[in-house]
Amino acid sequence: PSNYFYLVVRGDSMEPRIHDGDLVAIRSQPEVENGEIAAVRIDGEATLKRVYYNPGTLTLMPANPAYAPMIYAGPQLEEVHIEGKAVGWTHWVG
User: Pick the catalytic residue: 2, 28, 49, 85?
Assistant: First the structure.
């Protein structure tokens, strides 16, 4: 359907569940529920992270503990755009 798109994961910030090279299905939607995995655009760059809303802040949380959470507040929130919810992925062997 036209409201879905696919991303190829680059990097290991969502390991151990989602791996570098995996194919992720994204349902286009401007918002996700607290704690859901989303494709997020920040200054033209895309990232796949778990999204947490807190009063006045938005936290993008990687699954891999080697990476720090990305926390946005105030005017920084204008740079962050939810592109859609991750609805499935597969370990891509290409």
Answer: 49
